[in-house]
Amino acid sequence: MIESIRGRSLLSLDDLSKEAIVEVLDTAESFVEVNRRSIKKVPALKGRVVASLFFEESTRTRLSFETAAKRLSADVLSLAVASSSVKKGESLRDTIATIDALGIDAVVMRHRSSGAALQVSRYVPHVRVINGGDGQHQHPTQGLLDAFTIRQILSERHDTTGLESGASLFEGLRILIVGDIRHSRVARSDVAAYATLGAEVRLCAPGTLLPEDVKTWPVTVAGDFDDALAWADVVGLLRLQSERGSGAFVASLSEFTFSHGLTVERARCLKSDALIMHPGPMNRGVEIDSRVVDSSRAVVERQVSNGVPIRMAVLYLSVAGSREG
Amino acid sequence: MSNDDERQARTRGLAFTAKSQLMTADDVTRAVRRMAHEIVERNHDVASLSIIGLQTGGRAPASALASILAEISGQPVSAGMLDVSFYRDDLSRNPLVTSSATNIDHDLTDRTVVLVDDVLFTGRTIRAALNALSDWGRPRAVQLAVLVDRGHRELPIRPDYVGKNLPTSPDEAIVATHEGVWIGTREPS
Amino acid sequence: MSAIIIRQGLVVGEHATVVADVLIVDGRIAEVAATIDAPSDAREVDARDCWVGPGFVDLHSHLREPGREAAESIESGARAGALGGYCALVAMPNTEPALDNVALVSFVLERGARTPLDIAVAGAITQGRRGELLAPMAEMAALGVRIFTDDGVGVQDSSVMRRALTYARPLGVRLAQHCEDEQLAAGGTMNEGALSGRLGLVGRPALAEELMVMRDIELVRMTGAPLHFLHLSTGRSVQMVLGARDEGLPVTFEVAPHHFTLDEGACASYDPVFKVHPPLRSPSDVAALREALRRGVVDAVATDHAPHAPELKDLVFDEAPAGMLGLEHAAALTFEALGPSSDPRTFFQVLSRGPARIAQLRADDIRVRHSAHGAAMVSGEDANVTVFDPGSRWSVDRHTLESRSMNTPYDGRAMSGRVRATIVKGRLVVDQGLLT
């Protein structure tokens, strides 16, 4: 169990203790403030080099990380490996060695294969590796920013601050996650974060989209979707990738919407103050109806804007917290 | 005990053990009042001041100073808090301290900023504060008020207003709050 | 040919063990006696505190030639085998191209004949190992091929497997199956379970193996043809085959050292050296396999030696090829699993006599060009002998292996027991743990 990510790589939320997660959330509070200033920059990582290595394309996440690094005054090397002529089968080791020769302090990486971030961290143990998503395994900063968003909104409602509340707002909080959980690294990170912080987590999905080993997860599986929606304080929706909905796991996208989409009708089952969340990008009309997205309960914009402070917090704790080499 | 010190101590796994008390609560109150008068003496226009306490040790002294200044001058005094964690240049020596908020609700341009902290030691915190301030505007002047100056400066930084000068050895520790000032040691807890 | 005298080892016969000298002359065991007056020019092998028994036979080696010589060649594989105590290897047919015709089988046999070991060949069951059309088993059998397998994959189509068994039966050859239903295995990379879910890796369920084991037991019952089950990895698979064997069905099975030494937990590091099909299983499966070994009910230990060029095992877990090395450590791992107080006869049974029977390489089998293996250790037999030192302590260094590849999962691991000498067809190929 990791008690703090200071000076360490961030590969998975599975290994982090409650204290470690709360430390990231608390640090992110300060960066929310920094992001409100006219000069949105602090010199904390001045002179450090952060490389972003995205083997799987994702403009939004990559930009979010690079913005975070720049606002910490780090030098950013951006390698959109996915768009270069790297063919399948290129050794990770070679790519990393090239980057390492440039003297990087940290690498943010996303890869289509589970475990890639851990493998890289073994090749370059002196470099902090921040996992930006590896296959179906984990997407730690997404889990953290989702938890942060929940804490932010709930502490506003309870007239307190995130810092003062620590993890208390999660105690017994009812969080429902819906969608293609089986193939989702976001789901794994979210469940790890929420369960560790003390929330009660339920999953709802068609049988084929639940993980095989769901009995070992710190969750309960909800049978009835409508009942689950009425139970929840927070509903997290996951994107259904079109290839999943083309017959192998679910007959069609419309079948999925029929059984597990958050339609306008179903949204009426929700508590009046329930939060609706989505890691993006959304398939409007599939897992969520457009009108529900645009309703005031959706907090998706907050999730997006919290991405930068959370990633600043992670980079700061991980990189600035390490001994200068 | 200064929260900043305490937090730094906790972070490094060190606990403070007091050897002796050098100032009582009354001594501290008197010193703060004296400093407030010195500030007024030097900066006639209290309205152009901005009393900025450094998180977290300077918080209490700063608000004490601000309220005494308001009392003396009969006018409201602008005040704020500044967190400097992200501006430190000695991160490899001092482990990270979880930052607290920066709260400055007024424009610092053309004002005289009085930075306030509990203990002045190497001067690196003040240097970080000067860096941080530059992101908030361009004050006309910056002055420094501290409860205790314990010497051992590593940078050319000098205080304008001092509660008490206390010569110390580098391995001793100082704790300064509104309740008093103690000297002691820090041991791994 | 010169003589070899093996001094004072514990000679492990089929039924009894005795400390004795063993004299080898002209490729045969000349004498086994308490002390022997050897010819003056006889090469001496000190076997005190060692076990002396029939040379090991590996039913399952991937020698990669033709097609992937960067990983291994027949020659380098033979050397690795000799160091591991092996006198005979059965070369698997999943080369490129597959060994599904006499031309390629002849090529491998001919290359094998240049090595000091007996290299037997397993031919493919189906053309190209595609699982659709039968390969020319009769022609290959005439060259001496006695085992046929599509190893790497199992024959998925039940009607094809039925036909293959029916065809093989009158030829007196044996089919061998890599049991995994590819559909259920779903392209997975490790054992399916709580760990695979946590790691975000697609899992290969134990049922993928067990379902095909069940099916093939019934097909053996239906056709009466003998079948050998390759690398059984779950407790349930072993249980089912033991049950079938008890019923009198002509089935045999092997277990691979990695399946009775390592469990799925090793994959948590995402190090592709631990990727193998069938995958490393649960701790209870490992315990079940070790238990079966100790009880003496396992027919054979086979290495499934699967070399891969280093750059291929440097890929992400998903993309790296499956398979690990095995020839140079199988004996030590088998010894460890059996336990220090085990009967040496069990050791030689699973490493030599059992596999020799399955491969039809014993003295009373009809062999083409190969010598006899799995000796009872009496005079007159072909001299394929291994001297094993149970007291030796060593550790694995992947950089100093004889194999061309380095993908051993045991790098840095301390090992108990080591081959001291290997005599193949009367020739001292390994002495004092080194190739001569």
What attributes characterize this protein structure?
heterotrimer, A: 325 residues, alpha/beta, Rossmann fold, 4-stranded parallel beta sheet, 9 strands, 39% helix, C: 436 residues, TIM Barrel, 8-stranded parallel beta sheet, globular
* Biggest pleated sheet of chain B: 5 strands, parallel
What is the CATH T-level topology of chain B? Answer: Rossmann fold
CATH H-level homologous superfamily name of the largest domain in chain A: Aspartate/ornithine carbamoyltransferase
Order of helices and strands of chain A: HEHEHEHEHHEHEEHEHHEHH
Detail the poorly predicted runs of chain A: none
End-to-end Cα distance of chain A: 25 Å
Shape of chain A: globular
Provide mean pLDDT of chain A, rounded.
90
Strand content of chain B: 25-35%
* Helix-strand string of chain B: HEHEHEEHEEEE
What is the arithmetic mean of pLDDT of chain B? 85
Write down the CATH class of the largest domain in chain A: Alpha Beta
SSE class of chain B: alpha/beta
Q: Tell me the number of strands of chain B.
A: 8
Name the strands of the widest sheet of chain A in spatial order. 7-6-5-8-9
Number of domains of chain B: 1
How big is the Rg of chain A?
Answer: 19 Å
What Rg of chain B do the Cα atoms give? 16 Å
Instruction: Summarize the largest interface: chains and residue counts.
Output: A-C, 28 and 22 residues
What is the number of helices of chain B? 4
Structure write-up:
The complex is a heterotrimer of chains A (325), B (189) and C (436). Chain A is of the alpha/beta class. Chain A has 2 domains: 13-137 and 307-320, Aspartate/ornithine carbamoyltransferase (Rossmann fold, 3-Layer(aba) Sandwich); 140-304, Rossmann fold. Chain A has helices at 18-34, 59-71, 92-100, 116-123, 140-157, 162-165, 185-197, 225-231, 253-260, 264-267, 290-293, 300-320, and strands at 49-54, 75-79, 106-111, 128-134, 174-178, 200-204, 220-221, 234-237, 275-277. Chain A has a 5-stranded parallel β-sheet with strand order 7-6-5-8-9, with helices on both faces. In chain A, helix 3 (92-100) crosses helix 4 (116-123) and helix 5 (140-157) crosses helix 7 (185-197). Chain A is globular. The mean pLDDT of chain A is 90. Chain B has one domain (25-168): Rossmann fold (3-Layer(aba) Sandwich), CATH 3.40.50. Chain B has helices at residues 3-11, 25-42, 59-73, 124-134; strands spanning 14-23, 49-54, 79-82, 112-120, 141-149, 161-165, 173-177, 180-188. In chain B, the strands form 2 sheets. Chain B has a 5-stranded parallel β-sheet. Chain B has a 3-stranded antiparallel β-sheet with strand order 1-8-7. In chain B, 42% of the residues are buried. Chain C has 436 residues and is of the alpha/beta class. Chain C folds into 2 domains: 3-51 and 379-435, Roll (Urease, subunit C, domain 1), CATH 2.30.40.10; 55-358, Metal-dependent hydrolases (TIM Barrel, Alpha-Beta Barrel). In chain C, the strands form 3 sheets. In chain C, strands 1, 2, 3, 4, 5, 16, 17, 18 and 19 form a 9-stranded mixed β-sheet that branches. An 8-stranded parallel β-sheet of chain C has the order 6-7-8-9-10-13-14-15. The longest helix of chain C is centred in the middle third of the chain and has 18 residues, at 206-223. Chain C is globular. The A-C interface holds A 14, 88-89, 91-93, 111-116, 118-119, 122, 134-138, 185, 188, 211-214, 216-217 and C 192-203, 269-271, 311, 314-319.
